Amino acid sequence: MATRVQRGSPAPVAGQQNAASLCGDGTCGDLTTFALYYLAVLVPSLAVSVRRLHDTGRSARWLLISLVPFIGGIWFLILLLLDSVPGANQWGPNPKEVPVAATSS
Questions:
Q1: How far apart are CA 62 and CA 58, in angstroms?
Q2: Most CB atoms closer than 10 Å: which of 21, 24, 52, 87?
Q3: pTM to 2 decimals?
Q4: Residue 56's pLDDT band (cuts 50, 70, 90)
């Protein structure tokens, strides 16, 4: 017996999935939730990393060192763990040296 091939529909390629089967098993909700969580966490973590680099007297360009495979992430972690530069730098005063405003009660 010969099998019929529908005209106009491409033959499936091994290892590929069509768009209907990507969400057919219910995983799109999990993927969307993960993507939203990732984006919600990415922006504040970048802001904190840039702020920390500024505290150590470095430019935000040092954030790109984390893109270097293997050693980049380790070097970036070391940069984040370094102590702040004493005194003010071009991005503002040292947060450790800023006096805390007294609250009156």
A1: 7
A2: 52
A3: 0.58
A4: confident
Cα(86)–Cα(95) distance, integer angstroms: 10
Asked if 75 and 65 count as a contact pair (C-beta separation under 8 A), the reply is yes
* Token reading at 40: 């919600």
Q: What amino acid is encoded at 14 in this protein? A: A
SS3 4: coil
Strand ranges, E, within 1-105 = none
Q: Which amino acid is at 84?
A: S
Is-contact 57 89, C-beta < 8 A?
yes
Q: Which whole-number Å values give the CA distances from 10 to 17, 18, 22, 38, 55, in the listed order?
A: 12, 11, 17, 35, 57
CB-based contacts of 18: which residues, under 8 Å, 6+ apart?
A: 12
User: Does pLDDT of 50 surpass 60?
Assistant: yes
CA atoms within 13 A on the CB side of 93: 5
Q: Which residues pair with 104 in a beta bridge?
A: none
